[in-house]
Design brief:
This protein has 433 residues and is of the alpha/beta class. The protein is built from 16 helices and 11 strands. It has a 6-stranded parallel sheet with strand order 4-5-7-9-10-11. Strand 10, helix 10 and strand 11 form a beta-alpha-beta unit. Helix 1 crosses helix 15 and helix 6 runs parallel beside helix 7. The longest helix is centred in the middle third of the chain and has 21 residues. The two termini are 27 Å apart. It binds 6-deoxy-beta-L-fructofuranose and manganese (II) ion. Manganese (II) ion binds next to loops.
Length: 433
């Protein structure tokens, strides 16, 4: 490192915390008194929040784009190893993101052993791997223009199945335990597809991928309402995803990407239903106002995020068996520093979780039983309106993180140093990677 400090260096982090520690202690003790009067032991919440982990999307540390343009930022990671280095900075400062979710072939590398070593050295592991049959890559024999796992040509389906099985093989070498399958397959016009036939072909293809799963793996089915298909998407909604998971078998679960629903859809209700069906496999957290905007989690509608975590904490409280949804971010950063956005987003997930832990569930159940509607709603609001910032900061410090990760990151000069070391790859393109 030249003039910059290494934001992963525990001493650098301790220095950046030094003049913030006293204020944090005061704020934490004052919140502790407030929660104490509610019968809540603040340290219990802090420990639970500290243990809450989210996976970073490898494709999120580069600058995202839209179909109109992508404006590369300074010091972009150029390969999976540089992506891991950036993920290590996020985890060092937040202590909330110990795993990375890879996307193949975007993160393809010949030397998987070196990749695993690099991750281990950075204190990182690998969450679900993501397959990609929504793009053609150079040298690919058959195109996915008209679909992949649901293509009418069996040879194209076989090619897509083989790619997914390769992803499982790669993930096994890296220690992943899940494969996320999102396909853009669908139709742009009525009549283009036989809607039943497309789904049948999907089930036939994914059953072959399912059969290749190691016994301790999960297959995560990710639904999406539209884009790139604009009339009918084969795996369009949670109902179709659940149907597929239940048809495939017990290792198949449903992944909920928050941006994959029509505006105003009650996503916390979908979460409650998938929990009931014992098929909630995980999340791609982000936020959106209109479509699949992939904005920072909690940046548009933090109350909706809180309501989703309220369902997760309720399920934990009800001791739902085998309840272990995977928490992952899936965002596209077009106008912010991806490292800053991912740190802020991981913290917003912890904030939603902490608030949900503050819900007085006995009181809520009583108000629900007696149909005291106002007080039931107020009970949730009371938890949501609690400023849990000191809990989030204390949870970070307890694990060697920064009280103010963004300030520490900026003070480190990491991005400027990357800009010096990682020459820009010229020109603006379009598309997310
Ligand atoms: C599709 C999606 C999917 C990923 C991709 C990067 O919109 O959410 O999870 O494969 O984004
Ligand atoms: Mn997603």
């Amino acid at each position: 490192m030249s003039s910059a400090a290494d934001p992963r260096d525990p001493e650098f982090i301790a220095r950046s915390n030094a003049d913030r520690q006293a204020d944090l202690t005061a704020e934490y003790e004052s919140l502790g008194r407030v929660l104490g009067r509610r019968g809540v032991e603040i340290d219990v919440v802090t420990n639970a929040v500290g243990a809450f982990a989210t996976a970073i999307p490898s494709w999120g540390v580069g600058t995202g784009g839209t179909r109109f343009a992508r404006f590369p930022g300074p010091g972009e990671p150029r390969d999976v190893f540089e992506k891991l280095a950036d993920c290590a900075v996020i985890h060092a400062l937040t202590r909330a993101t110990p795993t990375v979710s890879l996307h193949l072939p975007w993160d393809y590398t010949q030397d998987l052993a070196a990749l695993r070593e690099c991750a281990t050295a950075a204190g990182l592991g690998f969450d679900a791997v993501n397959s990609n049959t929504f793009q053609d890559r150079s040298g690919q024999r058959l195109s996915y223009k008209y679909g992949s796992l649901t293509h009418t040509d069996a040879a194209v389906r076989e090619q897509a199945v083989a790619h997914n099985i390769d992803c499982i093989a790669t993930g096994r070498q890296l220690g992943s335990k899940a494969l996320t399958v999102w396909i853009g397959d669908g139709a742009n016009f009525p009549g283009q597809h036989n809607l039943a036939g497309a789904f049948e072909r999907y089930l036939g293809s994914v059953a072959q991928i399912y059969a290749a799963l190691p016994p301790d793996w999960r297959l995560l089915v990710e639904h999406k309402m539209y884009e790139p298909a604009f009339y009918a998407t084969v795996i369009q909604d949670w109902g179709t995803s659940l149907l597929a998971a239940q048809t495939l078998g017990p290792q198949a679960h449903c992944l909920v990407d928050l941006g994959h629903h029509a505006p105003n859809v009650n996503i916390e209700m979908i979460v409650a239903r998938l929990i009931h069906a014992r098929r909630l496999g995980g999340f791609h957290f982000n936020d959106s106002k209109y479509g699949d905007d992939d904005l920072d989690a909690g940046s548009i509608d933090p109350f909706r995020l809180f309501l989703i975590f309220n369902e997760l904490v309720d399920a934990q409280a009800r001791r739902v068996p085998d309840f272990a949804p995977a928490h992952m971010l899936d965002q596209s950063h077009n106008v912010t520093d991806p490292i800053e956005s991912l740190m802020a987003s991981a913290i917003e997930l912890q904030r939603a979780f902490a608030r949900a832990l503050l819900v007085d569930r006995d009181k809520l159940a009583e108000y629900q039983r007696t149909n005291d509607v106002l007080m039931a709603a107020q009970t949730l609001r009371h938890a949501f309106n609690t400023d849990v910032t000191p809990i989030l900061a204390r949870a970070r410090v307890q694990r060697g993180g920064a009280i103010d990760p963004i300030a520490a990151y900026r003070a480190s000069g990491y991005r400027e140093d990357c800009a010096r070391k990682r020459p820009a790859r010229g020109g603006s393109s379009s598309g997310i990677v």
